[in-house]
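Complex record, two chains
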Amino acid sequence: MAEIDYSEPRIGVFVCHCGTNIAAIVDVKKVVEEVKKLPGVVHAEDYMYMCSGIGQQLIINAIREKKLNGVVVAACTPSLHYETFARAVESAGLDKQRYEIVSIREYCSWVHFHDRRRATEKAVRIIAAAVARIRNNRVYKPIRRRIVKKALVIGGGIAGMTAAIDIANAGIPVILVEKEPTIGGRMIQLSVTFPTLDCAQCTITPKMAEVGKHPNIKLYTLSEVVDVSGHIGNFHVKIRKKPRMVDIEECRLCGWCSNACPVEVINEFTRGLSKRKAIYLPFPQAVPAAYVIDSEHCTRCGMCVKVCPVNAINLDEKEEIIEEDVGAIVVATGFDLYDGRKLPEYGYGIYKNVIDSLQFEQLIVPSGPTKGRIVRLSDGKPAKTVVFIQCAGQRDVNHLPYCSKICCMYTAKQALMYKSKVPDGKAYIFYIDVRTAGKGYEEFYRKVQEIPGITYIRGRVGKVWEDEDGNLIVTGVDTLSGELLKIKADLVVLALGMVPQLDRELAAKLKISVDENGFAQEVHPKLKPVETEAGGVYIAGAVQGPKDISESVAQASAAASKVIQLLSKDYIEKDPLVAEVDESRCDGCGLCVSTCPYGAISLENGVARVNEVACEGCGMCAAACPVGAIDLRNLTEKHFDEMIKAIYGVKSR
Amino acid sequence: MTWEPWLIGFLEKWTAGLAAESAGVNRVRYSPNIVLINIPCPSRLSPVHIVKAFLAGADGVYIGGSMPPANCHYKVGNYKTFKRMYLLKKLMAQFGIEPERLRMDWYVSPMYRALAKNIDEFVETIKKLGPITSRERVDGL
């Protein structure tokens, strides 16, 4: 292939119609006509779908035939198709630093549909700025960085465990960080899973055991990621490990410590339905299989230390900060239930017999706090009537605007399980819509709907209160018949929505963005569902959006495969767009050294020197330099000058 | 033809730039009289760039950065930008350019509605101020 000559600008502009997404608003033909007049532009054309094979071929042909040395694509957002066109221009021998994609869809046609004339003019200005930029872009050699062949998975639920196992099976060491004393996540709290009614614990415990004994997985429980620095291929993370105070290797699970412990607190594993001691085993199949001391409630009385037959307890254990280098990160921090106390009309947190769906799961589990009997929590009498309220706090602008997707199915499952345990009981399910998209889901729902004693009522519950006898009175409207209903119930179960468990601070440290509802934002909902804006950081499970177990597992495997792809390489090429020093101008004042947030600049022999690997390319130093000796590659002073001039050089019509 | 303003906006691509993208995806309309340019970090902008934009014909300059304290992709870029532009605003009056012609807002990526609203507000402000009258004088500086 002939070498491309970069001396004189020969720029081609390719304007996409995006079907009618752009062309219906922006006068594409007019744009092409105007763009041809821009300095440096030797070729401009439009096409229906530039991203299609034919569209890409148009670009490749033009580069070859017109001897282009710069390409501007005006289409959708770079986050969608930057790579697509980068590959196309590179296949024609053009360096991708001389190519740019600018959005005239998200940034123009989709937001200015009310004003076609100005939208067209704006599109021309956007392209003019891009052309000015490309005209001045130089081609730099990429910077190579070594990849650390190790991955970090945050969250030990079903998604995190699946990702960790998949990555570890590929021979890559994995660090799994879980904030609870055991892995297992939400799934271990469930009774059975829909639609097959498999026992959830039996499904997940082999996985937990596999994580626990996998030679490539290093498990940190009671731990949280507190700091993340670095970039794709080379992250440095700090993990805070809270003291467990029990030696995992030594503990024999005899339970003497727990019997001796005088402190009783609420058990969060059963969501408050039972008590536990301050030294406890979260549940019998916990991994790591060892007791743990709840340092918040422990009084340091030392009773457990006295009775422990193997001297596994050390009350003086301190918090540790562990530092690790990893090449990729999977975020699988999962979900929590929406706080039911924000729905006072349903009486959650006020009446003992109003419970959430996870508490109901604990009532079904044979090993649960009631040994699998479904009873009123206030007095332990059997629950003969149960009212399920779906969409509690969901699809409601005052609470959660979205649908949590799984509640219709688990409510059907819970009603079925209830009927199998209390055959003469009555279950009422208040719903708005029943959504059962999924393999075998609709069939399952049909089956449940036909069981005598389970009544589906379309409508919303107005209020729940308790009468003198301790029964709950549920009032609501059946919106199909228009009837007002009043049901006397023993238990009310709220299908509370899923809220993401993603600390905003952690998200900021990982440099991933979150959406309006706090879920981690994927790069593209259809095509890049596990990638995030931060390269090398992937998301899996309910932290990205409400999903059921099978979807979480599928997404976790997808994230794992992305990690394996990344870590199978030895080097990663870093964008060479870093700061550059003009040594003849630098007077060694050192202002840039103190400005740089990465410590990437140092003074050597009286002039500033940039560490290319550490430089992130923000340009803070370039703006600070009083003599203009330091500049950001391909975003130089000249770039700004010409971009601004180009935008205002376009004639208004 | 009646005068209409053309503004230039610099958006931090990790937050404000994503917000602008979401505004598109969600079809939130706003005034077209602004050309938005994504840059890695607004701290790349020196006051000189802003003044040059005014000289080149910008009727207003907009900066969309990341919401303090923890959202800056480059740790402290938002603070740096704020300090520099705050000082520039003080100077602008002396050049004969109204300080209101430079506006900064801070975003996290879901704030696309705020972005659209802020841009509309800003364009309205500039429409009220009218063209920069002292541009020729400044040009001759």
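Note: Chain A touches chain B through 53 residues (CB under 8 Å).
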